[in-house]
Structures
1.
Amino acid sequence: MNQVNRLKGGQIDRSVTHRFKFDGKTFEGHQGDTLASALLANGVRLMGRSFKYHRPRGVLTAGSEEPNALVELRNGARQEPNSRATTIELFDGLLAKSQNRLGPLKYDLLAINDRFSNFLTAGFYYKTFMWPAAFWEKVYEPIIRRAAGLGSLSQLDDPDVYDKGFLHCDLLVIGAGPAGLAAALTAGRSGAEVILADEDFRMGGRLNCESLTLDDQSAPAWADDVVAELKSLPNVRVMHRTTIIGAFDHGIYGAVERISDHLIVPDLGKPRQILWRIYTKRTILATGAIERPIAFENNDRPGIMLASAIRTYANRFAVAANKKIVIFTNNDDGHRTAKDLHAMGVEVCGVIDVRADAPRSLDYEVLHGQVVDTKGRLGLNQVKIRLENGNIRSLDCGALGVSGGWNPNVHLTCHQRGRPTWRDDIAAFVPGVDLPLGMSVAGAASGIMSTTGALQSGTDAACAALSAIGIKSRAITIPQTEDAPVSIQPFWYVKGCRRAWIDLQNDVTVKDIQLSHQEGFRAVEHLKRYTTLGMATDQGKTSNMGGLAIMAELAGTSIPKAGTTIFRPPYTPTAIGVFAGRHRGQDFHPKRLTPSHKWAKEQGAAFVEVGNWMRAQWFPLAGETKWRESVDREVLAVRTSVGVCDVTTLGKIDVQGAEAAEFLNKIYCNGFAKLAVGKCRYGLMLREDGIAKDDGTAARLANDHFVVTTTTANALPVYRHMEFVRQCLFPDMDVQLISTTESWAQYAVAGPNSRALLQKIIDPFTDLSNDAFPFMSCANVTVCGGLRARLFRISFSGELAYELAVPTAYGDALIRKIIAVGAEFNVTPYGTEALGVLRIEKGHAAGNELNGTTTAQNLGMGKLVSKTKDSIGSILSERAALTAPGTLCQVGIKPLNPADPVIAGAHLMNEKGPIDAAHDQGYVTSACFSPNLGHAIAIGFLKDGDLRFGEKMRLVSPLTGIETKIEIVSAHFIDPQGERLRA
Amino acid sequence: MHSLKPVTALGGIEPRTDVFHHLSIIENDGLALASFAARRGFELECQTVLKGLLGVVPSVGKAIFNDPISGFWLGPDQWMLTAPHDSHELLADIVKNECGAAASMSEQTGAWVCFDVIGDALLAFCERICSAPIRQMQGGDTRRTSIHHLNCILIKQSAGDQIRIFGPRASADSLHHALFTTATALA
């Protein structure tokens, strides 16, 4: 076969021939073809199998509404299932294969399903797979899951990239048919910023599909001229291959631009698609209308198509759907197809019109009647007609064009719950009054079905839209063209038919809808779920109306009273990849690198994500094969000499102003007003309900200047909270806040030799002696010969320790300097694991303990909550339920057998008695192995824990079968008197 | 003079420049930054100080380019000041000396990475990275915007074919990656 159905004319470029493969067989087509048009040109009608019954299926439409001709496009990692042959732009080397079949397409073994169709009606699996109950999970569900779906996934990572973008305009015109082009031209000439988007690769909409003239030009030529003018205007952006997938709040539209889908692979570095977010002041919806089919017995054979699609293939793609074609219609548009086909030399075997007053023709036979059945196993070869007088007549043909009228494409008007309204004169829903803000509708999408009407409504809509935003414009001169009225006799299905398909994609028949009605699933949304009508890739674009009409008839009501389903975004299937954009894999979210990151990487550090931060977790040395070896070494080094840890990630908030101290008094539950300049203080922050929010230190650098630190995880929430307090609760206070987390590189230098080490870093005029710079001191200092720095004598490890901050740009140099000058003390870098062990040994609370359920009293800091001032959360922290006997209290836990592990998350039970929730005594929040003590330790919360030191208990985890004998001790495992940190 | 050598936000000794035929992305490591917030009751005094420094007080969404100190609006009675780093490394202290207790100053140099982007494809580039309405923005217009999930400040320079992007310094690599891949996609 070599394009046996190719006609003359059309808008294809015959000078460019593309070779492509379908199911392994090579074909040729031309530039400007779709896969569907090229297959039809080559005489291929059979393109797939239906979802449930595996019936042979061919193409139904010529657009994105296609329910049938779905293929797997490309292969390997780029294989994309459920691609519509009607929208796939042909390119050289294209590979496609049919889907949803077992064996060759012609001999699909699963076609046996069709023999059992009586058992596979709507809702069959709700009824069929009830018994035995045990079979559901092991037998039925796996089988159903295997049978579900159409195409298959490659299971490989998508090798292409996707971009996102943002556009702004005065007017967005959706659809480049006659109404859209007229609107865009009107607005473009006025100077407004215009975006014209169309899903097709060729603009013009139905103008490309008709044999009309506009003035003295063919319709496609007129469209070409308009598009050329629009492209020449600097204020107009013309977007081919761009589908507006959703209408969202505030005039924002989602659009998918297919940049590379018409190429065999995207150009290097180029995205395959771009997801645009379009911000527009006004929108004109000019998405045209979609022709609908009529249901009759066996109306799903390959070769049975929408009449307008047959016209499109002939006029635009120069393809005859077959040599012999029959038309079945209830309106004048079917006759237009017949005329065009006849004019192009295609044999029109007859036009069957349900109307008694159908127009007659001298060129072909017009019959008053209905198609009642068809024949042809893999493709149509005969239609059976019941004439008005009751006689049956058969016509041999290879294609049947069906026209049941046109449905305005109202989808985008519904995305914000707009309800379409019914119009009897065109027997269709049109956009309702509750459109998305700023949207107007023009052309066939608004129910104006003539070309003249579409052009006029487009230019009028543009003038109105621009006027509303203060832009003057003038309507364009409308060319002379077709202006025929709509003549239609509503006709949805042939009475008496049973296996007549309403939804070809989901194999929903007239019988299924009758069953749905019979079983009480009559509401539109129930009908959809019970029968699957309108689901899947086409979302019922060609089927919803038919189903609705039949349900209305069965229910004895009108179509508008039966209602309509609400359309939701996206308008057409959209790749998940384009929603992800570049945010995938390791670029899923941005990373935050510490100032010492490069150096730590050089040391071979293991990293852990903490929020977006990448923190060094430990620093393995040669020969260390297990993480515990590294962590234990780091912990011991801090306890015995000195270690250094990057603590830049802790939140830092600059608090300045005449009332900065008063402000902190509100924020923290403990007092700050009297904190002396040059001193730090631990602070506990409560939520309004009295639960602990976060903790940290505040350092007073001047009377009107504090630096507050927060935990790493809560840096942003605390800053947000403080801004809320500043702006909303105490707007009259003179206090200013700004985050300085990333302004300063900050290192904890901890251990008995930390002072000696820092004396080699900090310039000599700063006296670091215990008397001059005692525990909880702070100061502005200089380091390494004059670099400004901040020094805080605070300790998370419980050792003599400092935190030293320098401007971030010098953070890399400072860590290298500390390591170099600390060599004589064997200074050891330590990561977050060692940090955790050190603080558990010291009994310091962290995120595990400040877990959103604990109070200051739980944390053993009840006395910290000042009674002499008001602060956020202080009153509610005194609620009876929070202070009653039996309140949880932070304790230390150690195993009776030093070899036993202690597991975080495990629960505390009395030494004897049942193990159940009613007898729960508390739980473990943090646990680790202490290399200093030589056994596992933990901290947790125990009822009346402060009164139970020395008590033997059981630590249990019923889920994992763990039961360990433990002893309750003070949480301060190391240096409970705090002598080391004050040394 | 101290002995510590600074590194750029991208971790280099020298700032990085990526030159495409249609765009250049230039890491600008030569700026000192300081935040300036008027204290309560001293708003007018602060306006006077800013006018002296910048010539004009930046209004909402605006930047003023001046020599040596420039500035842009951050929030009500809050601005960010910039100046050449070599001559104004201690910018916060310099301005604090002028405004005294009338304003709260914080050094912000280390908190930000700055990229200057220049070239013919600038508008298309901006449309791919953030939602700022770049085609409607005039020279000096400033937007707080999100780039690759990062809170950034975008300033359209007085020359219309150049923008300046301030982003969080700790995420300089991620931000640069986003800018670089976008520029590559447009090449």
Note: Chain A touches chain B through 62 residues (CB under 8 Å).
2.
Amino acid sequence: MASLAAHLLNPVLRFQVKRRLARATEARELRRAFNASLPGPRGVRFTAAVVGIAGEWAEPAAGASPALTLLYLHGGAYIACSSRSHRPITGGFARRGVRVFAPDYRLAPENPYPAALEDGLATYQALLDQGTAPERLAIAGDSAGGGLALAVLLKAKQEGLPMPARAVLFSPWTDLAATGASTVENDKRDPMIKGSKVAEGAEIYLAGADPREPFASPLYGDLAGLPPLMIHVGDNEVLRDDSVRFDATARAAGVTSLLRVWPVVAHVWPMFNAILPEGRQTLDESAAFIRGAVGAAR
Amino acid sequence: MRITVKGKVAVLTGAASGIGAALARQLAARGASLALIDRDQDGLERVAAEARLFGATVSTHVADLADPAAIAALPDAIAATHAAPALLINNAGVALVGRFDQMDAADFDWLMDINFWAGVRMTRAFLPALRRAGGARIVFLSSVFGIIAPPGQCAYAASKFAIRGFAEALRHELADTPIGVTVVHPGGIRTNIARSARLAAGMNPEEAAAGVRAFETMLKTTPEVAASTILRGVERGADRVLIGSDAYAIDALQRLMPARYWRPMQRRLGKLGGLVKAPAEQN
């Protein structure tokens, strides 16, 4: 059952985020609504670096360097947030034995599609060029960053690059055409996002591009050959069906996909893992899934 | 007795689907090694492949738990891959739809073999190995129908009350040993146990299908949530685990009305309650 913390957090998000997001029509307002600055966890070293493009590494402050590398793409509707805003997640992975690079890919409306895709792919290519073995490399992302992670995989596949060992997605935005039934069904239930906002946000990123273009909406891509996926989504999210349909489509294409649908929790709840047991459990399972790429569980 | 799951060997029955499949994935994510048992080989291999993605050591054992000889052979088969197990989860269960007077004796026996006797036989088979593990825990999946007994569930409720009785007595016997016993009472979990239920011989299939559909609307909790609730209970060393707000409501109602709990429940269930009640002229 959902934790008490999850039930208590939702009304706060409704007031702090959903209300502001619903009123926001410009990128500036969206950025303000999204940019909560949550503290990063202790025991993690954050280092600015350029890997293809600028971003930051999150690594355990003590002990040996982890055997696994994760490319993490932050969410924020392709408009807001940064590697820094998502430290609760990147740092959370670092604490669980994975070194993480989070690039600050270019954002819309200043840099619409395909700028983010190009930057994500450049980072993936740079990690491979640095000598990171694909079997020790994973990719992950939340919300828009989750859709972007999947788009980067599709683009990498098209360009003949090797696939990473694992992909982890938190509430990924896979359908910019916003055709999921949950955008309507969960419009009121979702504590963070109104269903009508999904298509609105997509227009800013797409800037005229087709919302069914697979490198913007990976749900419409050819998913065969993707690495094993783990997808986490909240049952009450307007984006629930972006995960449910992606999981079904991936499995139909012969991809191994583990879908976890969590009750009560809000969009990208691992951000709140400092106070949310579900957030910690999601990060625990996701890190174990990534570490599983090198065999024996630890 | 509290045990952490990490690094331990877990033996799990009914692992190919439903709560069992979710338990397998989550045990693997928590760093356990797994011996997975089911009669559905394809499902078992699929779940095992998913568990291995977490780096877990997994063995699979195709066995019909209605067969005592198959159960007796399991400890040796599992010892070939694993150290002594610290966790035995008796999860496998089947359902039988229909009134007592519509039910074949053979169907009743089949259900008791799997829901009750398999738990007893698994315990008998694995108790020596569990003692060797140092700290261990045996988990039995009862049901809310191990707390209340609705009409149409004669065999199922009998099996779930029986396994609860066995488990609670066993817990008290093992009180001075490092082996704990957890009894789990799930409410409605979204699994296919109702859809794959055997129909009582004398039951009209259309009537049964309507009953199953009505029943499925009450299945609120997902298998993943059930599995994480069970594992939290295991790590906490809980004697009793209720799953879902419906289970808590049923538990409270039974305490309030120990014998007459069915009346208020039937009013809420409507069609489903009527389906399994014997027509008045037959009374």
Note: Chain A touches chain B at residues 1-2, 166, 228, 235, 256, 258, 260-263, 281, 284-285, 288-289, 291-298 (CB under 8 Å).
3.
Amino acid sequence: MRMKSIFRHETILFLVVIVALVILSIQAEQFATIDNLLNQGRFLTEVSLVALIMTFVIVTGGIDLSVGSILGLSAIVLGVAWKKLGLPLPLAILVALSVGTLAGLFNGIIITRFKVPPLIATLATLALYRGLAEGISQARSIRGYPEWFFILGQGEFFGIPTQLWIVAFFTLLTGFILTYTTWGRATYAIGANETAARFSGIAVDKTKLFIYAASGFAASLAAIIFVSRVSTTRSDMGMGLELDAITAVVLGGTSIFGGKGTIVGTFFGLILIQILKNGLSLAGVKSDGTYIAIGLVLILTLLISNLFNRNSEG
Amino acid sequence: MNTQNENSNKFFSRFLINYGQELVLLASIIILFVVVSQVNHRFLGGNNLNTIFAGNAYIGVAAIGMSILIITGNIDVSVGALIGVLATICGTLAVSGYPIWFAWTAPILVGIAVNSLVGIIVAYAGIPSIVVTLGMMSILRGGLISVTGGDWITDMPEGFFLAQQDFMGIRVPLLALIFFTILMFYIMSNTTWGRSLYAIGGNPEAARTSGIDLKKGVVIAFAVHGMFVGLSTILFATQLNIIQSTVPPNLELTVITASVIGGVSIMGGTGTVIGSSLATILFAAIGSSLIFIGVSAYWLRAIMGILILCTVLADMARRRRVVS
Amino acid sequence: MKKYLLLISGLLFSSSLALAGDWTGGDDLPTNPLPCSGPAPAGEAKPYDGGSPTGAPNRKGKTITVVDVPKLVGIGYFSATTKGILDAAAEMGSMNAKTDGPSEANIDDQITLIDNYITQGVDGVLFAANDPGAIAPVLKKALSKGINVVGYDANSDPDARQWFVNQAEFNGIAKSLVDNMAREIGGSGGVAIVTSTFTTPNQARWIAEMEAYSNKCHPKLEWLETVEAQEDNILSFNQANTLINKYGSDLKGIYGMTSVATPASADAVTQANQCGNIAVVGLATPNAMKPYVNSGCVESVVLWNPVDLGYAAAYVLRAVADGDLKPGATSVNAGKLGELQVINGSEILLGAPYTFNKGNINDFDF
């Protein structure tokens, strides 16, 4: 029964995506071109990486509001390590990824060791990490990265934008982990009933630590791709990213209360938001209209999905 | 003698359990005031206290509504966007010649209407509040831009500026914050309706069996929250002689942070509005004191983050001690 | 755990003290303060350093579709530039212009929008950049598709666009602000700054130029502090109040660096009954400042006319598309504004910043 209703939301979402695709391609002739759709992948990358791991976080019944700030902090660390400390760029990338992962791990420690609810812990670190980014950067942006570095955010492989390969890889990897591995089952079990999971021998704290660290890693990877895409580093990068990621995850049917959700759903959620932003713009709708449309689609999709699920249950 | 001691101990620990976070916040505020006034005695000057208390009271009033919602296990991320929209309505009515009382009442009524709608969708369609209010935020923000284009509203009539008034030597916003905090604290701890809020958030099954209409309860909680958003808007819109018809940046995060750091459990069921009001004051005081101490402006937000984290960890440490 | 936190905060605090010195909020770029009095020296003629579109069709005399992407929409300032663009488009009769921008000054949303319009196939892009570097790749993409690209208000890297309509040079604005402040407070005293964020490029540039000019020409003006207040009305008001409370009678003047910070600072001074004791000088649009200028609390507001700025940008784009404005040109015709001069290689100067005061502010509506 449960699996069936989960399936249902993704089906409905898929249908909404198809409807949106059809309407938008009729409304705007430039929309349904390979060029445009691949190009949208570039804009989708950062929020996708974060949203994929955010799915795990929310499935455990947690939330990570600090991802946008971790993105900003990692970007600044990358720039400072490379330009100010003079590290070779590959090493600076490693440092930035480590700092992001550590920032996520720190969230995990506050949440598991000190039993601070995730929302509160990450609200606090949202302020902290953004503050560190501002302090370290002294509000200076860092530029002048070598040409090869832009391959990541502006280049392509076999005609497909580089970062799309990375997103595809992570989508498959996270989808596989959440669906088929013990880690994935542990994630669901924690979200469904943490106490029960603990008693049935699942390493709850370890799993959570790992997930929050992964969330930090995803945000810092997104930071590096973002820096490569826009060829500059600023401390205010990624502001508001957390809400975009959460929107995609909940639109994808993941329950904010935990225990339920899929990577497929998040994937469709991401796609739907991006094609709305792009397609409506191409069809001549201004961004204020697009905001309204995304808000309505978010509410209506879940409304329809809930109605169907309720009928099937009742 | 002994039993009396034990009794008072018991009372004390009960008090600590129930109002621990409020005490932590109050102690932090007092320590902050004492320490910073040693560094710069102007910190405790009457004007600065006015800036800290009255200048941020609108956040506290909105956080009262938010706390009520969070206690029932819901949340509202559209609060900043709604305040922007309501302030525009309030100012536009005032300059279009409607009586001032009407300009003041409109944001409250519209606030109640919008949030009741959200409440109905949450309660009767079963969509989590974070989803509905994320959508609502998007809708309100886009709507405000298409309608106003961000114009400044000026030349409001004399007498419109409620938040600039004094009453018995105290600024109206601070009075409003104190009044509504005490009122809601009393209502929430002493009335059936108030206690039902805790039951809805803390243990919905038990609430249902004890005869509480959960769905109606959630809608009413949203409506009351909407009323406080409206009240907050009046303070927000009448504080300056001009109104900017835009969405104030990051206001929803500030309000939510005040509520949850104020001790309102995000899982629902516990917390008081005294905590959220104290947390509002504490954040405002931290922001002001860092400027007074002369912390480099670049590091200001980082230190603010550390202090917020310390408050959270101190509360967790206290809880453990009380439990063990 | 707590020990570490204390240690970290201690470290942060001490490092913050060690870094005192320069005005907070400025950038590191070299400054070029104007002479204290007399005309500005003629700048060296620089060769054209803008970019050029590849394979642009001949658009001379044809009706062109133009999109204007400001830093953000929904604020008065960019509503005014939009009005100027639409006025110019209506006057020329050969331009379909529309404004579309992000709801917050966000580099990513702005880039995404411009990219969408490139796909849609516009003839020209007008922009005001949130970040000069971040916007460069997408603008270069536009150039590579044969789209004419002209900036206004906030520049990008020069080679990422063709021309930039400069509302007023940074050092000119700085001089105007500092001179007005010095005059109003009698040449000496403490001054503080309320800005949006330290990462906003234009504001950081102005603050750096103000520091250089102030040290050179008004050494008795003592900079006290710069505070951030986002683009938030009430936060600006509270921050200005905190400055007033902290410095008491040592504070003689407040610079407002944005069209939000200036009126909010003026309101703070008004409500603290410090009109006449604390001067407010800043950048702001006249509509927001009328209450304070008319009440006499604020003497001078510095700004260019944003309607003219948008108007000029539209005319420049038309001239570029027609091929009338080529690299090496020394001036361009901008309709009712007449001939505008080319400076710095690929910039077109709107004029000197304008000072609004009690005598003229009510003549403007934007």
Note: The mean pLDDT of chain A is 91.
